[in-house]
Write a structure and sequence with these properties.
Aspartate Aminotransferase, domain 2; single chain; alpha/beta; 3-stranded antiparallel β-sheet; Aspartate Aminotransferase, domain 1; 13% strand
Length: 398
């Protein structure tokens, strides 16, 4: 029986045993509701407060600027919909985002368009990077929100969020009411994130991308930014998100942030070595390879490669049968037969978009995992190309 290899860490990560150990008591003996005023409740509240400090420390914010959510999707919804609902007048204002945002942003924007809001989707060109000049040109008198992700979940490209933040700050200094949100779900814990350096007003995070269980996330809300509550209920999270806090998941999230802050630099170096070796050897071993996104300005753990004359889904299944888990794109987009919108936004033709595979490494991966992948990948691609319709047509012609 072969050893299974997981190379889909951008979809989710395995929970760190240290994180699980930290959260387990809050399922049993420390089971209190953090809103209760007796001992059990205050014990839970103290754990939530500690986690809030741990999350804040990872991104350089104040603890009281952290709002816990159920994950990145809720954080993005609260940021965008909450800000618009609180700060829009009777007219529907204008939003600027990019063509490669995660569906938790893109689908929210598309829904807002149906409600009468105007949305501009900035291009990213072949390198997968937004141009600040395009943002400046897209600005309108009624622009109220700019939402540009920090790092793309499929190709790993890092966006110029610091430059965008400086531009938004200049706008506000001139009297304009424009806010800046960045989806940092993929970036936080993998590369340095500092909300003061970015200059953002809102920033989204998710626990299960950094070795904590699914079920928790956070939204950074800069002091003074007002949001309309989207989860209407109790007075939790300073009345910014109603609902009983999931104390075990919040404890896990905070613990994962603490480990990420301490281990990020060393982990990034090792992940970059695995990614770079894969790309170097794939280029030598296989023909018809195209690398997607900027190969310098990106996360250390993601490699997105298009293979000509194959269907990515076919390669994914073939590799899975040999014990290797990869992805054709965002896990939240699985189930669709359409080519990846992110790869198409790079200007790639449908053949390359359909043949794109995301290899995303995590701290549990080893050089032996790359050895195994390189052992089976060339033959898998050769077999798929042999079975491709073009190959059958050529065979009949001969």
């Amino acid at each position: 029986m072969f050893r299974r290899i997981y190379l889909d860490n951008s979809a989710t990560t395995a929970s760190d045993p240290r994180v699980v150990e930290a959260m387990l008591p809050y399922f049993s003996e420390k089971f209190g509701n953090a809103s209760s005023i007796h001992f059990f409740g205050q014990e839970a509240k103290a754990a939530v407060d500690k986690a809030r400090h741990q999350v804040a420390n990872l991104i350089g914010s104040r603890p009281n600027e952290i709002v816990f959510t159920s994950g990145g999707t809720e954080a993005n919804n609260l940021a965008i919909k909450g800000l618009l609902a609180r700060n829009s007048g009777s007219e529907k204002p204008h939003i600027i985002t990019s063509a490669i945002e995660h569906s938790a942003v893109t689908n929210v924007c598309e829904d807002l368009e149906k409600q009468g809001y105007a949305v501009t989707y900035l291009p990213v060109y072949e390198d997968g990077v937004v141009r600040v000049e395009d943002l400046k040109n897209a600005l309108r008198d009624d622009t109220i929100l700019v939402s540009i992700m920090m790092a793309n979940n499929e190709i790993g490209t890092l966006q110029p969020v610091e430059e965008i933040g400086r531009f938004i700050k200049e706008l506000r200094a001139s009297g304009r009411k424009v806010w800046f949100h960045t989806d940092a779900v993929q970036a936080a814990g993998k590369v340095p994130v500092n909300v003061e350096e970015i200059g953002c007003d809102l920033l989204s995070m998710s626990a299960h991308k950094i070795y904590a269980p699914k079920g928790a996330g956070a939204l950074y809300v800069r002091r003074g930014v007002r949001l309309q509550v989207q989860n209407i209920g109790g007075h939790q999270e300073r009345e910014r998100r109603g609902g009983t806090e999931s104390v075990p998941h919040i404890v896990a999230f905070g613990t994962a942030c603490e480990f990420a802050a301490a281990e990020m630099k060393a982990s990034g170096i090792e992940l970059g070595k695995l990614r770079d070796r894969l790309e170097s050897e794939v280029g030598e071993m296989i023909e018809g390879v195209v690398y997607n996104g900027d190969r310098e300005r990106r996360l250390p753990n993601i490699s997105n490669i298009s293979f000509r004359s194959i269907e990515g889904e076919g390669l994914l299944i073939n590799l899975d049968m040999q014990g290797i888990a990869v992805s054709t794109g965002s896990a939240c987009s699985s189930g669709t037969l359409e080519p990846s919108p992110v790869i198409r936004a790079l200007g790639r033709e449908d053949e390359l978009a359909r043949g794109a595979i995301r290899f995303s490494f995590g701290k549990n991966n080893t050089p032996a995992d790359v050895d195994r992948l390189l052992e089976v990948l060339p033959a898998a691609i050769e077999n798929l190309r042999r079975l491709a319709p073009e190959s059958r047509k050529e065979a009949r012609a001969v």
